[in-house]
Amino acid sequence: MIDLLTEVFILEAHISYQHPIDSIRDSIPHLYGGLFQKYGVTADEFEKAFECYMLDNDLMNSVLDEVLSNISISRSKADEKKETESDNLHPEIQ
Length: 94
Description:
This protein has one domain. By secondary structure, it is mostly helical. The chain is built from 4 helices and no strands. The longest helix has 33 residues, at 57-89. 76% of the residues lie in helices and 0% in strands.
């Protein structure tokens, strides 16, 4: 659930930064569908599992802490990759 929820949050962030949103509106169900398929669940199964997690505050807080940690790690890796690519494009700057 932690990995799936991490990817759902990242997908939602990506969608929210699309301007105008109309440009990807038709793709949204496919984006989520692909994500759920990757983890072998349906949207309904995900929603029901999420609702179960929401019934236990301590468990949900623990899950969200792990999700935030995963997002932070992913962001750090993306920043490192950008920096490496930038260094490779402009070696004279080093």
